[in-house]
Amino acid sequence: xxxxxxxxxxxxxxxxxxxxxxxxxxxxxxxxxxxxxxxxxxxxxxxxxxxxxxxxxxxxxxxxxxxxxxxxxxxxxxxxxxxxxxxxxxxxxxxxxxxxxxxxxxxxxxxxxxxxxxxxxxxxxxxxxxxxxxxxxxxxxxxxxxxxxxxxxxxxxxxxxxxxxxxxxxxxxxxxxxxxxxxxxxxxxxxxxxxxxxxxxxxxxxxxxxxxxxxxxxxxxxxxxxxxxxxxxxxxxxxxxxxxxxxxxxxxxxxxxxxxxxxxxxxxxxxxxxxxxxxxxxxxxxxxxxxxxxxxxxxxxxxxxxxxxxxxxxxxxxxxxxxxxxxxxxxxxxxxxxxxxxxxxxxxxxxxxxxxxxxxxxxxxxxxxxxxxxxxxxxxxxxxxxxxxxxxxxxxxxxxxxxxxxxxxxxxxxxxxxxxxxxxxxxxxxxxxxxxxxxxxxxxxxxxxxxxxxxxxxx
Length: 459
Description:
Pfam family, one: Ephrin_rec_like
Number of helices: 0
Radius of gyration: 66 Å
Mean pLDDT: 85
CATH architecture of the domain at 361-417: Ribbon
Strand order of the largest sheet: 1-2
Strand content: 25-35%
CATH class of the domain at 361-417: Mainly Beta
Protein name: Tyrosine-protein kinase ephrin type A/B receptor-like domain-containing protein
């Protein structure tokens, strides 16, 4: 025979098992008397013949005979073999293992285990809930929500709000949230200040309390400048708008803001240094001095003068021993063995006494024996007859009385007795009466022919 299953019974000789009466149960292989009173709701008949309580958060109808008759309560859903509460933002209004139902977008529940749709309440102002969420979440900083929002709304441009803000009125201007050319140094202020001269702002300066300074050596022509190109090179500097700006070179100037090139000073003029700002900075350059009759206002220093700096001063005389050419910025030293008076040109450098040269560019050389040069001469000259000179002499020496020499004599030994004189010891004496000598030399006087007689010293 086959055993009757739990919940059924049979009598002796039965050909089939019968179901126990309503609200009763039996264990397997029961007779009719084994059909006991049914288990109450929330329990089920166990194989032990006793009623067992359904698992936590589960329920069963009265007379249940198996744990499978236990299903999850309202507000709970199956998770494996257990029942868990519906999460925040969901609900379940019936018994069973079905999933919990999500609240509509913008709504949530106050907690877990909600049992009906009415438990879904609108998200409070300052929170939100979208289709991927089961609970209301606080809006982050910079956003807000009034109510029943599936997303927070961003604050207007250049403003912000604290987390959990519930109105656009919670959005206040950021510090520096102003139009280009302006700034704000107070958070939440709606008052913007204009960028001052020499500064600019090219876009709203979020979080900045001031404007940007122009690059070095540039400035703005008016307040409220909105881009770096408004920074113009200062007077005395040149370059593209917005920089970089470089100073005008020596000999140039620029008198206004802007990118225009520096202007060169007129010929003969220059500036003290770089970065000059006006035409009046152009003074007579080195080598030039004021000249009212010149159309340029400055003329070159004359030869013998110099000027080594830029200014409207006159030129200075070169000191003795030095010389200069036209437009000189410094005096040069005369060549060796020569001299000059103050204010001399190169031609004024005269060879010293006893020295000479064939031109003003050649070195002064010592005069050779038989020549001389004095302080008024630039070249060596041959000594005339009757005189002689040894080397480097400023003048020729006259031969002793009674002697003479040919031109270019180089020593006293070349001084010979003249005509009418003869050698007598170390000197020359006049020919005696009745004698004569008609040649230069140390030879003796000759007797006169016939009765001729000449006075002493005649022939």
